[in-house]
């Protein structure tokens, strides 16, 4: 049984690695990435994209709230001899005098932000991009919103100790807001010495809704895609990507 799980995890990691490789190749080709191309990756995590783009000679900046992720990304950059500017900060508070050719926001981070936060972020993108600069991001689609149901779940060490290494009781309540196309996952985590409540909001988009948000903030959508690896747009898929340029 252990061998089965290890093989399954290896398989998933291999597929993810292959997708990132294909994605970086598409990004490099579509945006003509090379020496002198300045790229900002918002929510860069452990540097899965930034490292590979730096290998294409791009001048890359990665911003992420997680100190552990940034630490790992810096270690990888050092081991591979890559010059990457990593910033451990809430990207909503990030400010810079740099001006970029491309801003990326991958793994549907955009969907976890409130309407006001999304507006502030797009305004920030507009400020830090060079004239004619581009944004690449992906979002959850209405096809993914459709199956979401209001549910309740409970368990000891709910989600396999995701919330704490110590014993805890976890409760999940899922709420669906049809008009807004928003889902709320409310997690209540009860430990011996503390209680926490975490609200995880997710916005689901139609292409038209995403295009309106871009247009309201000075961008024009250039292309809708199936994913950030350049696949064709599929209205039945659970995610899609968009390339937008400053008007």
Using the alpha-carbon principal axes, give the shape.
globular
As an assembly, this protein is single chain
Helical proportion, percent range: 25-40%
Instruction: Report the end-to-end length measured between terminal Cα atoms.
Output: 55 Å
**Which CATH architecture of the largest domain is right?**
3-Layer(aba) Sandwich
Number of strands: 11
Identify low-pLDDT runs.
Answer: 2-7
Order of helices and strands: HEHEHEEHEHEHEEEHEE
What's the total helix number?
Answer: 7
The CATH homologous superfamily of the largest domain is called Vaccinia Virus protein VP39
User: What structural category characterises the helix and strand content?
Assistant: alpha/beta
